Amino acid sequence: xxxxxxxxxxxxxxxxxxxxxxxxxxxxxxxxxxxxxxxxxxxxxxxxxxxxxxxxxxxxxxxxxxxxxxxxxxxxxxxxxxxxxxxxxxxxxxxxxxxxxxxxxxxxxxxxxxxxxxxxxxxxxxxxxxxxxxxxxxxxxxxxxxxxxxxxxxxxxxxxxxxxxxxxxxxxxxxxxxxxxxxxxxxxxxxxxxxxxxxxxxxxxxxxxxxxxxxxxxxxxxxxxxxxxxxxxxxxxxxxxxxxxxxxxxxxxxxxxxxxxxxxxxxxxxxxxxxxxxxxxxxxxxxxxxxxxxxxxxxxxxxxxxxxxxxxxxxxxxxxxxxxxxxxxxxxxxxxxxxxxxxxxxxxxxxxx
Length: 353
Prior knowledge:
The protein is of the alpha/beta class.
């Protein structure tokens, strides 16, 4: 008879960051004798099914989050999409109710999925955004987010608690409404001392159409780059594909193990300033250049924060050209802060019932 407690892990399908930062959580649940159950949609679900083929996996209703074609229309598009979002959250709650019954769940870990919780079992919300930046409506977006978080038993923030941290004012709000636990940065990667093979690694992710815009722009720009380049599109498809154009080796996606080796073997990284990417590069102590997703206030804030701290330069998507990579030498790059998380204590929440 299976006596392992079953814990649902459900990341948001917005780029790959939410699903990849759930990988270390799922691995630790397995180590601590829990049985993780996966739930998401789109490429986030595909990625976790590839990483954990033996685990049960369920499809949740899709939020269908895409970006406006123009960065300035980002907020308007989100407002237009909000009725659909609210309907999806309602549908998501119904799916969760039936999964709690049919799968005998003992706990829930939601990474930014608002409808993934249940009053009868311990429910956790993972986010690095206790404060949600949205320009002149930051107070409103933050209040709405905090209201959702307050409905969970705990909120886990993947960052350091103190003044040396990655998320800055996003993940550190005085007198916050909910019970907060700081996990330290979450990453599936370990630093390896290997020989450098690539001068530059381009690492793409994030919602469309902006991911494609940047892919096309960079592939064109790289014709003028002399070094050896590894280019990962961040498109999770059924089969891995590799193409070589001159000095550029291109993959549609990589598994965790492949990506860990690839980043370790690369001298410089060019990517979006998504929070999960920052956690990965921090652990691997890399030097990087960031191009925030246009219109995404959080990525713009994080890129500016890192530049002001002398860690990494950044530039807007429209203004970027390949010569700008030379700025990296004037920045010190990431340094990893050692942090040991007591997962036994953290998962104690699920043992209580």
